[in-house]
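Hi V.,

You were right to ask for the full record rather than a summary. Here it is.
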Amino acid sequence: MSIAEGDKLPAATLMEKTPDGPAKLSTDELFAGKKVVLFAVPGAFTPTCSLNHLPGFLENRDAILSKGIDDIMVVSVNDWHVMNAWADKTGGAGKIRFLADFDASYTKALGLDMDLSAGGLGVRSKRYSMIVDDGVVKKLNVEEQPGQAVTSGAAAILEQL
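Predicted structure:
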């Protein structure tokens, strides 16, 4: 069963690159007492993720934050090295938070995992975006069409804020 609007996010640990090295962060640390936009991509450096989904959030960062959002985060089933490299390569470092769900445990806990083994990618996240207020999902947008980032894109989030 997939997470739904009104549900509290499951407890999990994600990883993020910090100046001191990798940091393990609980979902409580990331979301408690904050209003956050979280979006997920099937994989860092993949075409739709790098050319469409992430750029929309980078381009609309200030507009999203101006709507009372404390933080914008992207999560992917990749390790923290890959997420850090993707942040650096795309110019997103320091603008949004790049979180690694290295073993897909968070993605599976949300019920938003999919098996892309046939394409050589293994278990990955569905493409989605959500507005989270103090750990509770207020809006959830799951992309139904592969290779698109419309329903879960930054423009859709801006309309919902």
